C-alpha cells in the first residue's frame, strides 16, 4: 500500500521588509529559512520544514498568486491588498494582521507647494501614485477632484519635474522624501502586513493549512504586546 504523503504548503511573500520581518516569525515556531533571496537566484526557497516552501514574488503579485491558487498562503501589506481586492474581489481570506513591516500611506508635495490652498473644496489636483483606489477614495472624501497619474516607482520625481502636484505613497522613515526636498502634508492610513489564505485551499486542505495559520497567529502576538 502506498503511503499518503502530506502536501507541501506554499507561502508567497516579497523580498525586503516583509521577508525580513517574516523570518523571525517562522523562527519562533521552529522553522528556518535555509536560503536567502538576497544571495540565491532561486524564486522557490526551501525551509527546514519539508511541508513548507517559500515563493518569492513582487509585493504587488502576492495576492494574485494566492487568489489563483499558485500559493496556499501569503503575506502582503494592507496597501497592496486594498488595491487588489478593489479590482479582484473574492477568493482571499485575511485571518491575521501580523503587525509587521509597518509604515503608512501619506500625501507629499514640494516644500514650496501650497497644499492647503490646492485642496480647497472643489479644487483639482494632479496626484502621482500606484495606489489609485486609495487616492481616489481619499480625495473624494475631501471633495477634491484629482487627475491620477499611475506610476510604479521613483514617485518622488513626479512633483520635482512638474508631472504632478502631489504624490500618495508609502512612507516609513521619511528619509527619501527629505532627500528629494518633499514634505509629508497629509497622513492617509496605517499599513502593516496580513496573512492571506486561498479560500479554496482552506476548504480542501484545512488540516494541513490550519497549523501554519495558528503558528503565525501565535508568533505575531509578540508584535502586538
UniProtKB/TrEMBL annotation:
The keyword Amino-acid biosynthesis applies. The lineage of its organism: Bacteria, Pseudomonadati, Pseudomonadota, Betaproteobacteria, Burkholderiales. Lacks the C-terminal regulatory region which is replaced by HisZ. Keywords: Amino-acid biosynthesis, ATP-binding, Cytoplasm, Glycosyltransferase, Histidine biosynthesis, Nucleotide-binding, Transferase. GO terms for molecular function: ATP binding; ATP phosphoribosyltransferase activity. It is an enzyme of class 2 (transferase). Its EC number is 2.4.2.17. HAMAP family: HisG_Short. GO terms for biological process: L-histidine biosynthetic process. This is ATP phosphoribosyltransferase. NCBIfam families: hisG (TIGR00070). Its main location: cytoplasm. It comes from Pelistega ratti. InterPro entries: ATP_PRibTrfase_cat, ATP_PRibTrfase_CS, ATP_PRibTrfase_HisG, ATP_PRibTrfase_HisG_short. Signal peptide: none annotated. It comes from the Bacteria. Pathway: Amino-acid biosynthesis; L-histidine biosynthesis; L-histidine from 5-phospho-alpha-D-ribose 1-diphosphate: step 1/9. It is found in: Cytoplasm. Pfam families: HisG. GO terms for cellular component: cytoplasm. Gene3D superfamilies: Periplasmic binding protein-like II. Belongs to the ATP phosphoribosyltransferase family. Short subfamily. Catalyzes the condensation of ATP and 5-phosphoribose 1-diphosphate to form N'-(5'-phosphoribosyl)-ATP (PR-ATP). Has a crucial role in the pathway because the rate of histidine biosynthesis seems to be controlled primarily by regulation of HisG enzymatic activity.
Amino acid at each position: 500500500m502506498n503511503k499518503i504523503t502530506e502536501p507541501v504548503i506554499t507561502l508567497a511573500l516579497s523580498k525586503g521588509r516583509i521577508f525580513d520581518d517574516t523570518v523571525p516569525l517562522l523562527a519562533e515556531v521552529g522553522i528556518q529559512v535555509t536560503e536567502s533571496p538576497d544571495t540565491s537566484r532561486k524564486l522557490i526557497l526551501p525551509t527546514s520544514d519539508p511541508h513548507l516552501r517559500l515563493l518569492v514574488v513582487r509585493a504587488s503579485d502576492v495576492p494574485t498568486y494566492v487568489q489563483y491558487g499558485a500559493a496556499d498562503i501569503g503575506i502582503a501589506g494592507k496597501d497592496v491588498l486594498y488595491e487588489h481586492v478593489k479590482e479582484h474581489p473574492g477568493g482571499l481570506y485575511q485571518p491575521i494582521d501580523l503587525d509587521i513591516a509597518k509604515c503608512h500611506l501619506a500625501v507629499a508635495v514640494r516644500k514650496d507647494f501650497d497644499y492647503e490652498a490646492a485642496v480647497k473644496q472643489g479644487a483639482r489636483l494632479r496626484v502621482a501614485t500606484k495606489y489609485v483606489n486609495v487616492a481616489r477614495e481619499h480625495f473624494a472624501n475631501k471633495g477634491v477632484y484629482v487627475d491620477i497619474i499611475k506610476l510604479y516607482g521613483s514617485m518622488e520625481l513626479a512633483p520635482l519635474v512638474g508631472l504632478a502636484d502631489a504624490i500618495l505613497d508609502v512612507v516609513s522613515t521619511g528619509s527619501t522624501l527629505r532627500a528629494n526636498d518633499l514634505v509629508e502634508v497629509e497622513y492617509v492610513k496605517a499599513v502593516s502586513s496580513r496573512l492571506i489564505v486561498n479560500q479554496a485551499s482552506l476548504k480542501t486542505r484545512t488540516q494541513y493549512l490550519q497549523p501554519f495559520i495558528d503558528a503565525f497567529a501565535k508568533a505575531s502576538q509578540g508584535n502586538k504586546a
